[in-house]
Amino acid sequence: MTSQTEIGEKGTAAAETRRAARAASTGRAGDRVFAIATRGSGILVLVIMAAIAVFLIWKALPALRSDEANFVTSQEWSPDSTPARFGIAQLAFGTVISSFLALLMATPVAIAIALFISFYAPRRIAGGLSFVIDLLAAVPSIIYGLWGLQFFVTKMDDVAVFLNDNASWIPLFGGDSVGGRSILTASVVLAIMILPIISSISREVFQQVPQANIEAALALGATRWEVIRMAVLPFGRSGMVSAAMLGLGRALGETIAVAMVLSTASGITLHILKEGGNTFAANIANTFAEAGANGRGALIASGLVLFIITLIVNMAARAIVARRKEFV
Amino acid sequence: MAKRIEVSGLHAYYGQVHAIEDISMSVEPRSVTAFIGPSGCGKSTFLRTLNRMHEVIPAARVEGKVLLDSEDLYGSEVDPVAVRRVVGMVFQRPNPFPTMSIYDNVAAGLKLNGMRGKSRLDEVVERSLRGANLWNEVKDRLNRPGAGLSGGQQQRLCIARAIAVEPQVLLMDEPCSALDPISTLAIEDLIAKLKEHYTIVIVTHNMQQAARVSDRTAFFNIAGTGQPGRLIEVDDTSKIFTNPVEKATEDYITGRFG
């Protein structure tokens, strides 16, 4: 009788263990589902990337084969004529210089705004200001385009003439036929567009600076600016680089605002006040609708180059961020 | 170099909260003064008023006088930044600059003071690291990140950083509370050595530590939650730990409360 009870008790204990095990195994199944889901999402991204690349290459190849000019160095763009002659030199130049100028203008301002919000502004102003900055990011790019074309271009006309008259000894500001619909205007509009993303990411980075480091600098007798230089900027360096690169990525790919602001004209020139210039994205937006089959292929080929440029920018950003990884 | 601190009628507030009330005491040069007391009694707050770090916190303010060899740290024309350059501080958690090498951490304060020239910096960095009993452990890896050291080494690095600028007073806010006993011992030995040159004030929760390292001990207490902290008694350490005047002090050091 006693032994029976014992066995019974053991049985119950065993059942409990099994139940516990089953509960645990449900957990393991959940774990597995989660692992598969996350891994799947990761793979999906790669698949999408590869699919985009394959699509671009596949569509671009026929047009590239028909190209009688050098695709990399030619400044012409007449893919639908016979023989087809087109090259990306001007597009690449316009894209890179306008984005680079935009980055050059936006980054210092964006970081200064982020520093002001994080360390100088009274709390109430800081809240309002960061809200307004984030709001800038939410403005659709067509609005920037309209504003740029209708308002900003007319103002930039005078600025361009003034700079050309007074500072033409700087090569960038020299040249003839200066006006508002120039690479410089496009760059300024782009700078305004990428300002919020750089600023808000920098702000988040600055907020992660450990209070202990800030106090360490203060206790050494650092002024506010010295605290920023000793503790904040070095800590936020990689974050600021990523922020700038994200901004650059947006500037490189920005289409509609640039397409509206620039008056399309061919030719590569360093004179950024000159009316005209073109970028990959603006060229695609402006000419895709009227392009013939070969023209579309050529535009897609140019898109592929843009894709590669943005990839390189992002990889460069990562390399910069990783270089001093052991610090931070 | 070492200076005497004379505090009179000092109150500190966090917004509406009255954190410490009416503290008057003096700290002797070239000696170690320990602040003990239960948590929340205001000893860390008081410590931070001695180099004007208290006011770094939004809405925090201080009333009263802190004289450093007869110069009032809270005088209207005194720049808090200048105060912190002569009153150094070591924090509870080691806080070397994570982006800087060991060398740059020690040199950080020197560069703030405008010291330039590699040979001079080299010399002071070595002297400070030797002063913090860290030189032999790090001399071959001065360009490695300071954050890669062990906790005890990091704390000694922070001490080296603080003494590199040759402050007149060194404040230590529970410098050993995040450290193991061996590292604690290393820091305590260091404190004994540093007091030959510096006026040292140390906040500690460890009464044995206070008894071991300090010449004088100040006991702080609060009457109850929400009440401001007060200085109960300050005297020679041997007297505080053997024959205190106040009953509250005796209760605390014998472990009857707190």
TrEMBL record, chain A:
SUPFAM superfamilies, alphabetized: MetI-like (SSF161098)
- Ranges for domain ABC transmembrane type-1 come to 92-317
InterPro entries hit by this protein: MetI-like (IPR000515), MetI-like_sf (IPR035906), Phosphate_PstC (IPR011864), Phosphate_Transport_Permease (IPR051124)
Q: Where are the transmembrane segments?
A: 42-61, 88-117, 129-147, 178-198, 255-273, 298-321
Q: Which family does it belong to?
A: Belongs to the binding-protein-dependent transport system permease family. CysTW subfamily.
Question: Which NCBIfam families did the record assign?
Answer: phosphate_pstC
Name assigned to this protein: Phosphate transport system permease protein
Q: What is the lineage of its organism?
A: Bacteria, Bacillati, Actinomycetota, Actinomycetes, Streptosporangiales
UniProt gene name: pstC
UniProtKB/TrEMBL annotation, chain B:
Keywords from the UniProt entry: ATP-binding, Nucleotide-binding, Translocase, Transport
Q: Any idea what this protein is called? A: Phosphate ABC transporter ATP-binding protein
Respond yes or no to whether keyword Transport is given for this record: yes
Question: Gene3D superfamilies attached here?
Answer: P-loop containing nucleotide triphosphate hydrolases
The cross-references to Pfam families, in alphabetical order and at most eight, read: ABC_tran
- Which residue numbers delimit the ABC transporter domain? 5-247
GO molecular function term, any single one: ATP binding
In its UniProt entry, the species of origin is given as Actinomadura alba
